[in-house]
Design brief:
The chain has 341 residues and is α+β, with helices and mostly antiparallel strands. It folds into two domains: 124 residues, FAD/NAD(P)-binding domain; 135 residues, Guanine Nucleotide Dissociation Inhibitor, domain 2 (2-Layer Sandwich), CATH 3.30.519. The chain is 32% helix and 16% strand. The chain contains nine helices and ten strands. It has a five-stranded antiparallel beta sheet with strand order 6-7-8-5-9. Strands 1-2-3 form a three-stranded antiparallel beta sheet, with helices on one face. Helix 1 packs across helix 2 and helix 1 runs parallel beside helix 6. The chain starts with a helix and ends in a 6-residue tail after the last helix. The mean pLDDT is 94.
Length: 341
């Protein structure tokens, strides 16, 4: 049991990193997760799904006179005399503003939307050095029933305990996955953890069904395009098979599935390398070096342009902290009060 606890803790050390459980510096990720999530790293869910949080934020914005423009991709941030003065959309429209805030990663913000010709050379170099290598797979399932655990795990079939489960039996197990991943191989026995939100919130799935999501680290970062889909499905099969060792009915209750890797999120949302952290949780990319050294106060080398997303201090997760801090910095600068962020 002690090794299982250590294995679970190792999952926190490697999440959001390109490292293994014994790599120097991984303690940074574990500290971050337990700080953001509380001492027990508690999971919290939005009733009806995370999309309802987005809808609530939109309602709050609109209640204060704001407007959200949908399906409006930004082509570039407009720079005049060294200041951000608005954005140009892909459909040709331009929007002017006193201040522009970016919640995407630094690479996309400065090297793509701003253009490195507008940034100091040392700043461009620092942005290019940000590590985004973060391989993972998400498996979204529709289930016709619930997994039935057997043997020593049968006790979690009672009540709603099986809404979340993981198989990470030891640090050595995690390290074997890391060693295969760093050779650009699919782990033979990958880490396996899932949650079934509809077990706690019936509105998360149609009546008679359940929604389930698996997550596993260490899907290879460098996969040829013509092999990507096959490799993603192979890893998904292995992730589910690990859990099926303890809940043998798992494969037969799967009605439908969608397998997503970091490459999907890169293409769908424009995230550099699909890294959900917007810059890995490595010691050299945290605190006063997030997103890069000298710019942890949400300001940028471009006047009127601020950062406010997961690329900023303190980092990723649905916390709202980078946005809150970034907004305070903007208000302080506009009002001349330099509010501490």
């Amino acid at each position: 049991m002690d090794r299982c606890i250590q294995g679970s803790m190792c999952a926190m050390t490697i999440d959001g990193t390109h490292m293994g459980p014994y790599s120097p510096g991984t303690g940074m990720s574990m500290v971050y997760h337990y700080t953001v999530g509380g001492i027990a790293n508690r999971f919290r869910m939005v009733k009806g799904g995370i999309g309802n949080l987005s809808k609530a934020l939109v309602r709050a914005l609109e209640a204060h006179g704001g407007e959200v423009i949908y399906k409006a991709q930004v082509k570039r941030i407009l720079i005049e005399d060294g200041r951000a003065v608005g954005v140009e959309l892909r459909d040709g429209r331009t929007l002017s503003a006193r201040v522009v805030l970016s919640s995407i990663d630094a690479n996309k913000t400065f090297l793509h939307l701003v253009g490195e010709e507008h940034c100091p050379s040392d700043f461009v170099h620092s942005v290019r050095e940000i590590d985004y290598r973060n391989g993972y797979v998400q498996i979204h399932l529709t289930l016709s029933g619930l997994p039935e655990f057997t043997g020593h795990m049968a006790y979690i079939n009672e009540g709603d305990m099986r809404w979340i489960a993981s198989y990470i039996p030891s640090p050595e197990y995690v390290n074997r996955c890391w060693q295969q991943y760093r050779k650009n191989e699919i782990p033979e026995h990958p880490l396996s953890y899932y949650h079934i939100p509809s077990l706690l919130d019936p509105t998360a799935a149609p009546e008679g069904y359940h929604a389930c999501t698996f997550f596993s680290h260490y899907f290879p970062c460098e996969v040829p395009e013509d092999r990507h889909r096959d490799m993603a499905n192979i890893m998904a099969d292995r992730v589910i098979a690990e859990m099926a060792r303890f809940a043998p009915n798992f494969p037969e209750i799967i009605v439908d599935r969608a397998v997503l890797t970091q490459r999907y999120f890169e293409k769908a949302f424009g995230i550099t390398a699909g890294d959900f952290c917007h810059g890995l949780l490595h010691p050299g990319q945290m605190w006063n070096r997030r997103p890069v050294a000298g710019y942890s106060d949400y300001r940028t080398p471009i006047g009127g342009l601020y950062m406010c997303g997961s690329a900023c201090h303190p980092g990723p997760g649905v916390t709202g902290i980078p946005g809150y801090n970034g907004a305070r910095r903007v208000l302080g600068d506009l009002e001349g009060t330099s509010a501490a962020a």
